[in-house]
Write a structure and sequence with these properties.
- There is one protein chain.
- By secondary structure, the chain is an alpha/beta fold.
- Helices cover 43% and strands 18% of the residues.
- It is built from five helices and five strands.
- The chain has a five-stranded parallel β-sheet, sandwiched between helices.
- β1, α1 and β2 form a beta-alpha-beta unit.
- α2 packs parallel to α3.
- 29% of the residues are buried.
């Protein structure tokens, strides 16, 4: 049975959450959302999404803190993780990668770029034969 992959979107902007949710649902993904880092971590641990897409700059926990906690939790450590950000500074991108993010998509981006980045991340995990959620 081919189940729809679930993506958790974490962003403090309702507009970004709703827009990306619509784009990704239209591409065939099941989407769950969280509007801050702490809620995102809680949802990730409870729901075990197949991928997490997270904003970097949020009040409370930043995306960098979120990725560290996700990657340090045994239930979510293998979950593909992508940042969406307005930062174009290479040092910020490097920091995100060092903390465990698999990819970075800078704003503004097109629907094609978003779907392409998501599909590329799935392919990378498949090539490495990594099952992010062996419990599913």
């Amino acid at each position: 049975m081919n189940m729809k992959k679930t993506i958790l979107l974490i962003d403090d902007s309702d507009f970004i959450l709703e827009t990306n949710k619509e784009l990704l649902e239209a591409a065939g993904y099941n989407i769950i959302t969280a509007n801050n880092g702490l809620q995102g971590i809680e949802v990730a641990i409870k729901e075990l999404p197949d991928m997490i897409i997270c904003n970097v700059s949020m009040p409370g926990l930043s995306g960098f803190e979120v990725v560290e906690q996700i990657k340090n939790n045994k239930r979510t450590s293998l979950t593909p993780f992508m940042f969406l950000t307005g930062f174009t500074d290479k040092s910020k991108m490097r920091e995100g990668r060092e903390k465990g993010a698999d990819d970075y998509l800078t704003k503004p981006y097109t629907k094609k770029e978003l779907i392409g980045a998501v599909d590329a991340l799935w392919r990378m995990y498949e090539r490495k034969n990594i099952n992010p959620n062996p419990r599913k």
